[in-house]
Amino acid sequence: MIKYLRVHNIYLVGFMGVGKSSVGAALAARLGHRFIDLDERLGERFGASIPEVFSVHGEGVFRAAETDELIRCANERDVVVATGGGAFCDEANREIISESKGVSVYLDLPWEELDRRLVADNRGRPVYDDAEQACSLFEKRRPEYLRADVVIALEGSETPDDVADHVLRVLREVAPCAI
Ligand code: S3P
Fold this sequence. Notes:
The chain has eight helices and five strands. It is an alpha/beta fold. Strands 2-3-1-4-5 form a five-stranded parallel beta sheet, with helices on both faces. The structure holds shikimate-3-phosphate. Shikimate-3-phosphate (S3P) binds next to loops.
């Protein structure tokens, strides 16, 4: 199905800590596309860090701005977008991606590896309280992530370059028009 569409942008989706930003930058470099980090755009928009946006404005304001920035990305061409961990869990956001001929790529890491990474560095992420809460959030969200056009199963030992190469190999198979 994806094969026959003209795909404009690639959206990396998945849970916090999976490496969407570093893989997105590596993928964009390989394709000669521009890289957009959605959280970075949101930080610039508010002139604040993401934890500050949550604490000053609240999650509702953050999510509305996230959707708005996603629409801006959808109006651009030939970009690789690293989304925040909650973006793809919203149906309207998924529609923005698919209706703008974007291909969504889920980076799927086992919980044990995500947990290890988040315990080591959760960067004050506002939706991370502790391992137990994050695990149930991951279990709740994973079925939504699995709605992505492409699912890349990872172990955790791969470098961002390895993952970018893996994504490219799969896209060449299923969506050659994306690359
Ligand atoms: C969020 C993940 C964060 C950021 C915000 C909300 C989430 O992005 O968008 O803190 O709901 O999972 P990362 O996935 O890049 O950490």
